[in-house]
Specification:
Layout (H helix, E strand, L loop, with lengths): L1 E5 L4 H10 L7 E6 L2 H9 L6 E5 L5 H9 L3 E4 L4 H15 L2 E4 L4 H8 L2 H7 L2 E3 L8 H10 L4 E10 L10 H4 L8 H9 L4 E5 L2 E5 L4 E6 L3 E7 L4 H8 L6 E6 L2 H16 L4 H9 L3 H10 L13 E8 L2 E10 L6 H17 L7 E3 L1 H4 L2 H9 L4 E6 L1
Parallel strand pairs: 1-2, 1-4, 2-3, 4-5, 5-6, 6-15, 7-12
Antiparallel strand pairs: 7-13, 8-9, 10-11, 11-12, 13-14, 14-16
Helix pairs in contact: 1-14, 3-4, 4-5, 9-12, 11-13
Length: 387
């Protein structure tokens, strides 16, 4: 297949391209980016692969459609997805191009799923949200839920700055020009306003940064905080938990308090998503002091794993809980942790394992065991613990 990598010169796109270039069924990759020089630089690092660089601005409808028509499948790593995700998916459906992305915003995820019938009508297979979270997290949740006869609650969690999990570095928060990255702007969108969660088996919206205290198999316990992400939306559809579902940040109290200050100021109109994202890399003294005054409200993460999914329900008529996490945590940095799973999803599409028309979250179409076997080759092995 010929692969179009939109945003392919970015950190996450480049990680996906490097992994995809080694797939046996990928015959050609086009690295498409608004920054042609960066795309050309990436291409030069892959001398043994048929790769070319082109300039594509996805806000140019004609250029986007032309690039898509010339490809069999597109990897869309252009964010934030609440701004651009639906545009690229619609264009892929219109041009008959298979589609994968790393969409981490719940709002466009709900809209994308509504295009399922359109994708089926044109024979397009679209897999949305196949990165780290969402992506690996969804698949961990599905793997944990597989151990239960009845699923009541399901949570997915990812680390921000807990000990041993690293902290977001400057390259993840600010781009080459010093402007906030799409990932940082996305984060601000998802810690403000209201976010999607499941309560009593129903998809609802509530303010983010709500505490969730967990006691997990293996004696792990602590508190994490809700954040807007697609997992509750798609797991509500695929696993149908009867109780609660949410995506959680595993975060230190001080950082949780600072995010709460940013949330307050975004919701009041004092900050935009962009200006709040800039505060992440260079916090102002005033907001730093405000967060210090709030930090006592936030409980610690305790011994929670840095990246995990937990499913609670019943098995053989008794209450049962299953924890699925990765031995040693996720892949080293955010770019690889997101880009490599995207390429692993691509591998199942190009060889026909996961090639079914429609719009699908990863847990609805990917082969779980195959995916985790492939991920293990990147030193990420699944651990299942039960109680």
């Amino acid at each position: 297949m010929k692969v179009l990598a939109l945003g392919g010169a970015g950190a996450m796109g480049a990680a996906a391209v490097r992994t995809a270039a080694r797939l046996p069924d990928v015959r050609e990759i086009v690295v498409a980016d608004r920054d042609l020089t960066a795309a050309q630089d990436l291409v030069r690092t892959l001398p043994d692969t048929e790769v070319q660089a082109v300039r594509v601005d996805i806000t140019d409808r004609v250029a986007l459609h032309d690039a898509l028509r010339d490809a069999d499948v597109v990897l869309n790593t252009v964010g934030p997805y609440y701004r651009f995700g639906l545009t690229v998916l619609r264009a892929a459906i219109e041009t008959g191009t298979h589609y994968l992305d790393i969409c981490d915003d719940w709002e466009p995820t709900m809209q994308m799923l509504e295009y399922d019938a359109d994708a089926r009508a044109t024979g397009v297979c679209a897999i949305v949200g196949i990165g780290a979270s969402p992506g690996v997290s969804n698949l961990l949740a599905a793997r944990a839920a597989r151990e239960l006869d009845h699923l009541e609650d399901v949570y997915t969690g990812w680390p921000v700055d807990i000990p041993g999990a690293g902290t977001p570095d400057d390259a993840e928060l600010t781009g080459p020009t010093g402007a906030p990255t799409a990932a940082a702007v996305h984060w601000m969108q998802q810690i403000s306003g209201t976010v999607a969660v499941v309560r009593a088996g129903q998809l609802v919206q509530e303010p983010p940064l709500q505490p969730v205290s967990l006691s997990l198999p293996g004696g792990r316990a602590g508190t994490a905080y809700t954040v807007g992400h697609p997992e509750p939306v798609t797991l509500h559809w695929t696993l149908a938990p009867g109780g609660r579902a949410a995506n959680l940040m595993v975060v230190t109290p001080g950082t949780a308090a600072f995010l709460d200050v940013l949330r307050t100021d975004i919701d009041s109109g004092a900050l935009t998503n962009e200006s709040a994202a800039a505060e992440l890399a260079a916090p102002s003294l005033r907001r730093g002091l405000r967060s210090m005054a709030r930090s006592w409200r936030f409980a610690a993460a305790g011994s929670l794993p840095p990246f995990f999914a937990v499913a609670a329900g019943s098995k053989d008529g008794a209450a049962h809980m299953v924890l699925a996490h990765l031995d040693g945590g996720l892949i080293g940095n955010m770019a690889e942790a997101t880009g490599i799973p995207l390429a692993l999803g691509l591998s199942q599409l190009v060889d026909g394992t996961a090639l079914r028309p429609g719009v699908h979250p990863p847990e609805a179409i990917l082969d779980l065991d195959r995916f985790f076997d492939d991920l293990a080759e990147h030193s990420c092995r699944v651990v299942i613990e039960q109680s």
